[in-house]
């Protein structure tokens, strides 16, 4: 039996091999493999739907505040800068000739695009709405009774990160083995939590805080983990890809800073509060120059934008240095923190995080719409699962489902009700409990905020189509 390596190897970690394509496709062109990953994600329908998915301020009337789409694009920009900066150190030390620093930046940028692609409507409240449905719904209890304990854990702890891996590796381009067929390097960098749901253990470090893949995608996950050489830490559990720490840092930097900016634009935070918190991140040289620049700007809106840009740049430089400082522990699978927790000004970041929780995330407007999300998502899951389950049981037993069940089931796209046999490619109705619940969750999680609200209103009779 081969012994486990003591640390990960960068040559494996930067694998260009594509999931679902065992052989190199021989593509040679002006785009690198990792740039092609980025483009595939941008042009995917799942990414496009993020334009109407909540970041922090659900269904905001202002066209300024971030959606999941703009947030993901901004994270990818931060990730590209941070990844390229880290890549300069790696490429120089490893002596790579076919990998440039920009390639590592492109891997991180693509992983950043994918980091929220599986999130349901209503932001993080949408994830919790699914978990709440599992805990409280009679329909959910019946559905979970038919699952194994490992399968139940996936829904009890429903996780957008695992849904994201399912989206890019299976649901997008479902006729392709491997879905979007991204490189293993990009997929590895996007896997923040390389463990199954039943292995969640926050006491073992940040990589076990949540889970990163469903049982249905376990073989695909194993392909990624083994190809890039992640270190095994138990059955189905691996160390993080080093660039996953970089992707996570880019996400942390983006949302901590820009949520403050959005709150200022909506009048939730005043300029003095934003200035003081951002200024705490800029304690190096050039304070006098900073003051002069702020004084020249015409209004507080432009001052906040300038401070935001300076703060992000400072955090990128500090996070890159933190990665270099901890690289050996990361490669050995011993590093268990977020990079941003190790920064010299982590206290200032924690102060921003705490203030965001108190003044932004707990704001009445945010909480009110998020609360509505519980009703919408829970209501849709109840209606659709009850109807689809009834029709599935009827099919298994050779009976006819009720008209109500047939009517509601007809509203579910065929891709979530049928699977295709590999040989004949003929559609076969899904009746097994686990894939049935998983596919219905795919249907709900893939909805935009607006579509979920509209559909819920129609199904509950709150809004009906009419003419005249």
UniProtKB/TrEMBL annotation:
One GO term (biological process): dGTP catabolic process
CDD domains: HDc (cd00077)
InterPro entries hit by this protein: dGTP_triP_hydro_central_sf, dGTP_triphosphohydrolase_C, dGTPase, dGTPase-like, HD/PDEase_dom, HD_domain
Domain HD: 68-256
Gene3D superfamilies: eoxyguanosinetriphosphate triphosphohydrolase domain-like (1.10.3550.10), Hypothetical protein af1432 (1.10.3210.10), putative deoxyguanosinetriphosphate triphosphohydrolase like domain (1.10.3410.10)
Keyword annotations of the record: Hydrolase
A Gene Ontology molecular function term of the record: dGTPase activity
SMART domains assigned to the protein according to its UniProt record, in alphabetical order: HDc
PANTHER family: DEOXYGUANOSINETRIPHOSPHATE TRIPHOSPHOHYDROLASE, DEOXYNUCLEOSIDE TRIPHOSPHATE TRIPHOSPHOHYDROLASE
Protein's name in the database: dGTPase
Lineage: Bacteria, Pseudomonadati, Pseudomonadota, Gammaproteobacteria, Chromatiales
């Amino acid at each position: 039996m081969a012994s486990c390596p003591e640390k990960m190897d960068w040559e494996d970690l930067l694998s260009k091999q594509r999931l679902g394509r065992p052989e190199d496709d021989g593509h040679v062109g002006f785009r690198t493999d990792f740039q092609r990953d980025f483009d595939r994600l941008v042009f995917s329908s799942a990414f496009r739907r993020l334009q109407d998915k909540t970041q922090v301020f659900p269904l905001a009337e202002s066209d300024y505040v971030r959606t999941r789409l703009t947030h993901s694009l901004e994270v990818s920009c931060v990730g590209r800068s941070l990844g390229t900066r880290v890549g300069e150190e790696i490429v120089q030390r490893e002596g790579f000739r076919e990998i440039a620093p920009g390639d590592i930046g492109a891997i991180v940028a693509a992983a950043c695009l994918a980091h929220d692609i599986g999130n349901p409507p209503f932001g993080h409240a949408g994830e919790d709405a699914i978990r709440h449905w599992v805990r409280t719904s009679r329909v959910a209890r019946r559905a979970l009774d038919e699952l194994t304990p490992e399968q139940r854990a996936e829904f009890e702890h429903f996780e957008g990160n695992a849904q994201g891996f399912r989206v890019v590796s299976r649901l997008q381009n479902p006729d392709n083995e491997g879905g979007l067929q991204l490189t293993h390097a990009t997929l590895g960098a996007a896997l923040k939590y390389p463990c199954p749901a039943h292995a969640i253990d926050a006491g073992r470090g940040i990589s076990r805080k949540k889970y990163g893949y469903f049982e249905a995608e376990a073989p695909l996950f194993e392909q990624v983990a083994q190809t890039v050489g992640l270190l095994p830490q138990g059955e189905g559990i691996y160390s993080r890809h080093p660039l996953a720490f970089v992707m996570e840092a880019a996400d942390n930097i983006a949302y901590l800073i820009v949520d403050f900016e959005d709150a200022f634009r909506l009048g939730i935070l005043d300029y003095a509060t934003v200035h003081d918190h951002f200024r705490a991140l800029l304690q190096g040289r050039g304070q006098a120059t900073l003051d002069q620049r702020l004084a020249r700007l015409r209004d507080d809106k432009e001052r906040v934008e300038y401070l935001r840009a300076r703060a992000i740049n400072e955090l990128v430089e500090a996070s890159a240095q933190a990665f270099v400082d901890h690289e050996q522990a990361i490669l050995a699978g011993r590093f268990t923190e977020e990079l941003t927790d190790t920064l010299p000004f982590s206290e200032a970041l924690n102060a921003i995080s705490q203030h965001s929780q108190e003044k932004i995330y707990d704001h009445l407007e945010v909480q009110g719409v998020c609360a509505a999300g519980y009703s919408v998502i829970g209501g849709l899951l109840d209606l659709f699962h009850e109807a689809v389950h009834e029709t599935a049981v009827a099919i298994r037993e050779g009976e006819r489902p009720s008209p109500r069940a047939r009517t509601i089931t007809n509203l579910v796209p065929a891709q979530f009700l049928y699977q295709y046999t590999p040989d004949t490619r003929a559609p076969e109705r899904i009746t097994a409990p686990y894939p049935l619940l998983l596919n219905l969750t795919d249907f709900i999680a893939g909805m935009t905020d607006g579509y979920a609200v509209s559909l819920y209103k129609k199904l509950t009779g709150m809004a009906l189509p009419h003419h005249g």
